[in-house]
């Protein structure tokens, strides 16, 4: 059973980078056919897919965030990470990592679209 755990700071100042890491257990980050995803949910809004990295290490980003985002993986630690630059209060959300056995083709998602989820971590961007 794949288990995921997010880690990172809960408070980030505006204009600073937001960095989160997801640690995987129960599978290897290089196992086929897994895709490793970052998803967020802002207050009062639905789940928004923001990016992913494939089991062969290819990242893919939400078009509106691509210029500010970077996703990387570390097979030695069985982790993947997110960096979102130049954050604003609009980036305040609960951030989740999630596993899907295939690529994502939509930016609005539901929990059932993914086979495993982390518990989520609240990130608040202060002025």
Which features would summarize this protein structure in a list?
8-stranded mixed sheet
Provide an overview of this structure.
The termini are far apart. Helices cover 0% and strands 50% of the residues. The mean pLDDT is 96. It is built from no helices and 12 strands. The protein is mainly β.
Low-confidence stretches: none
Distance N terminus to C terminus? 40 Å
Overall, the morphology is globular
Task: Give the oligomer, counting copies of the same chain as homo and different chains as hetero.
Answer: single chain
Average pLDDT figure: 96
Largest sheet: 8 strands, mixed
Proportion of β residues?
Answer: over 45%
Number of strands: 12
Structural class: mainly beta
- Alpha plus pi helix count: 0
List the helices and strands in order: EEEEEEEEEEEE
**Approximately how much helix is present in the residues?**
under 10%
Q: What Rg is obtained from the alpha carbons, in whole angstroms?
A: 13 Å
Explain the layout of strands and helices.
Layout: E1 3-7, E2 11-13, E3 18-25, E4 35-41, E5 47-54, E6 59-61, E7 69-74, E8 79-84, E9 93-100, E10 108-109, E11 116-117, E12 121-126
Parallel strand pairs: 2-12
Antiparallel strand pairs: 1-3, 3-8, 4-5, 4-9, 5-6, 5-10, 7-8, 9-11, 9-12
Q: What is this entry, summarized?
A:
With 127 residues, the protein is an all-beta fold. It has strands spanning 3-7, 11-13, 18-25, 35-41, 47-54, 59-61, 69-74, 79-84, 93-100, 108-109, 116-117, 121-126.
